[in-house]
Amino acid sequence: MGHAEVGMPLQPKSPEHPAISQNLAAAGPTPDSKPRKKICCACPDTKRLRDECIVQHGEAACEKWIQAHKQCLRAEGFNV
Q1: Where, in this chain's numbering, is Cu cation bound (predicted)?
Q2: Which residues of 18-51 are buried (b: 16+ CB within 10 A; e: fewer)?
Q3: What Å distances lie between residue 57 and 21, 53, 63, CA to CA?
Q4: What is the pTM of this model?
Q5: 3-state secondary structure of 38
Q6: Distance between CA 69 and CA 80 in Å, rounded?
Q7: Which residues are annotated as a binding site for Cu cation?
Q8: Which of 3, 50, 71, 78 is deepest in the core (most CB within 10 A)?
Q9: Can you tell me the distance from the alpha carbon of 72 to that of 68, in angstroms, rounded to the nearest whole number?
Q10: What is the largest CA-CA distance in the chain?
């Protein structure tokens, strides 16, 4: 009977492996969705607004434009 108890926990673990494989497969397309542009060339509009604001008002006053640019870069596939 002790052996049956040892075997029973192993059975539920075997279905976990396909779940792990599915999670890895879901993560697989992430490298395929790499940005198609260089980060310096992505989001030129938000980059320009961010840069102009920082030059004129300083970084502390431009958080709105900095965050808008980061959001745009993330939408383009960059991890920022």
Answers
A1: 40-41
A2: eeeeeeeeeeeeeeeeeeeeeeeebbeebbebbe
A3: 50, 6, 11
A4: 0.57
A5: coil
A6: 10
A7: 40-41
A8: 50
A9: 6
A10: 78
